[in-house]
Design goal:
Length: 110
């Protein structure tokens, strides 16, 4: 049988704004409160994760991820309201795209 497949992402003026991998990274930052820990959970280098976050922050009207100041427990990072909004928007789009692929596959007459 054949199946309709594909990837979806939101493109900005400077390339990918958010896609599947970046969404997973943002979820990891939300969960762990740390770019380092989010990167480790994805088996990704900190440098690559930081570059992705920096790229998203620079393309957005306001940052998606912000640094927290240090203290007894140290600093960290968290998603901003715009970060949460971008993540929600991406997953809604991703879910619609996934459903489209299923329906299109069912309608294939090859």
């Amino acid at each position: 049988m054949y199946a309709v497949k594909g990837s979806i992402w939101i493109e900005g003026n400077n390339g990918t704004f958010i896609g599947y991998g970046r969404a997973i990274l943002l979820e990891g930052i939300r969960k762990h409160g740390s770019i380092t820990e989010a990167a480790k959970s994805m088996k990704m280098s900190y440098r690559q994760a930081w570059q992705m976050v920096d790229n998203m922050n620079k393309q957005s009207k306001s940052p998606l991820v912000e640094k927290l100041t240090g203290g007894v427990g140290g600093g960290g990072t968290k998603l901003t309201k715009d970060g949460e909004k971008a993540l929600t928007c991406f997953w809604e789009l991703h879910n619609k795209f996934t459903k489209f692929n299923v329906v299109a596959t069912e309608k294939l007459k090859l």
